Amino acid sequence: MNECIFCKIVSGEMDATIVYKDEQVTAFRDIHPVAPTHILVVPNRHLASTNEVTEQDEQLLGHMLAVVKPIAEQEGIAESGYRLIINTGPDANQVVYHLHLHIIGGQHMRHPMG
Ligand code: AMP
Question: The domain 5-105 is classified under which CATH number: 3.30.428.10, 3.40.50.300, 3.40.50.150, 1.10.150.20?
Fold first, then answer.
């Protein structure tokens, strides 16, 4: 049985506020937002982290970035700006081992890189 919470959000088994979905990726609001806009883009197919990505996944990874602009426009942050973050492994504080791209925008962004 699949215990991955992001797989459950993708399948609809677990609730989330989904802001975008297509055949390859799902985007939903982070439950603990660190900024006014905080969205996670995940591949619908389970990949634990960038450490599992291979050349076979190049199209999927490109698609994860390609959906950012329409999502940012929908959220009204395309022009004001946003940060994209992928955490991989313990030193990066990766908590959920299903690859995800954070889209963080709006004022009051908290991030160690300033
Ligand atoms: P990371 O440290 O990159 O693994 O970040 C995991 C992110 O997932 C955190 O920002 C959490 O707040 C978020 N998160 C965990 N569970 C859920 C959930 N059920 N729905 C939405 N976001 C979640």
Answer: 3.30.428.10
Query: Tens-of-pLDDT digits for all 114 residues of the chain?
Result: 579 999 999 999 999 999 999 999 999 999 999 999 999 999 999 999 999 999 999 999 999 999 999 999 999 999 999 999 999 999 999 999 999 999 999 876 555 555
Ligand 1 atom 5 nearest Cα: 95
Catalytic, 100? Answer: yes
State the Cα–Cα distance between residues 56 and 28, nearest whole angstrom: 25
Question: What are the Cα distances from residue 75, in Å, to 44, 48, 68, 83?
Answer: 21, 27, 10, 14
pTM greater than 0.85 (yes/no)? yes
For residue 16 and ligand 1, the question of a CB distance below 6 A is answered with yes
